[in-house]
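Help! Submission page says 'invalid entity' but I think these are all valid:
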Amino acid sequence: MASAALPALAAPTMRRRAPLASFLAPVALLVLWQLLCLSGAFPPQVLVPPSEVARTLWQLAETGELQRHVGESMTRLALGFAIGALAGLAFGAAIALSRLAEVVFGPFFFAVWQVPVIAFVPMLVIFFGIDEQFKVAIVILAAFFPVALAAFDGIRGVPRAWFEVARVYRTRLPDLIWRILVPATLPAVVTGLRVALTRAWVVLIAAELLAADSGIGQMMEMGRQMFRIDVVLAGVVVSGVIGFLLDRGAKAIERRASRWRAA
Amino acid sequence: MNALLSRSWIRALIGLIAPGLFLIWWQMQAQAGGAHALAFAPLQSVGAAFVELAVRGSLFPDMASTLSRSLSGLAIGGTLGIALGVAMAIWRPLDRVLNPLLQAIRQVPLMGWLPLLGLWVGTGQGTELIVVSLSAFFPTLLNSFEGVAGVERRFVEVGQIYGFTPLQRFRLILLPAAMPLILTGLTQGLAFAWIASIASEILLGVGGGLGVTMQLAQMQQRIDIILVAILVTAALGFTINRLFLRLRQHLLRWQAPLR
């Protein structure tokens, strides 16, 4: 699969595209959407034009409502992700480095890992109610598993010989961690962090739809209940943009992390 | 110590310690009484709930319902994903036109579509099926695209030498060469569809299924039923993933075991 794409076939533009084209395409999409609405093909209860969505977004921003929802969602995401990722890192490193820890906790971990995180929602609601704790807890869970797995795989992927060299040189544990383990496992761990961030965001939106008094998910759910299609579409746009930015930011960090290793 | 750990049955036994301790802790919490004892159902009631659901209750219909929702979603989303992915890889203008729209749709968290679909088609089983199909659509689309777009040039050159028609080229070269990635896409799509089924069932609570049972049990504060549903979800999800991987291996048995 290493050779270049065929002349008769498309180059995989899904991954690479010119900056101009990637700017033009969304604009064309918006224009099409607007024209579709102006043509009267859809009643305004079904689809409102992007100009209407933009006006709703502007109004929500003027009243400060949008900032409040985005802020609440981001706070939950940041708090839950930080806790979940740190715990995942520590746990993954522990079961990768100690055979005893792996034997004791590994099977339990891999068994719980079979459960989709979203399936824990009803249980967490009973435990924590539908308040803030529940939403942070579900984000912690969503972030924990990918990071733990990435840390485990990353450390297990370090060649045995490196540890042997460290032993020959009588490297102390802090040096072993900072000068061998961290650089060697960084790319895998950063990839795990990116996956965890994306999953945490998806799960948080689902949790906010179910039970919240604020946040992007709740804004959309309220919009649905009040038949405000403009608010729902504004929420779809905002959650999409946030998801896009989170993914792009994490990918940029990921590239830097692997480049450092290659250097 | 290490000699001890190298015996597989001892390892298995030690592996039971952590879950065992967890269950004992759980049981103690349940029997401690007080306000949060409600959240910890004693283990015997979880067992009783399992028997109740399996014998008299909705366990098997729920499993069938969630399973058929996942597989229908995979069939719809996967067929569209493969057809569109292959078409976009072969005919580039289609890719140019559809790519921005698809990329934009992909950025929105899957469950974020529920409120919009709720307004468009109502909060019923139709919305659940659309979300599940959407979840299976993207992995199959992306993998089919990559599979066809990444077919090695020399394979197609051989086809040119033999004077293949476009249809022959597609059927005899592109499709077999792309098959591993297409099947990878379907495997991922199945996993996504399974999770999306559970999620949409929990969020919408209609049409029956393991997620619907969880949601109802949550409203009735029946943690024992929730735990049974979670355990069954995990076991069933694990099993269908395994079966699908087997199927994939079987279908690709003509291939060198390289990837």
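Support: the input was valid. A stray whitespace character was the problem, and the output above is from the cleaned input. Residues 173-210 of chain A form the longest helix (38 residues).
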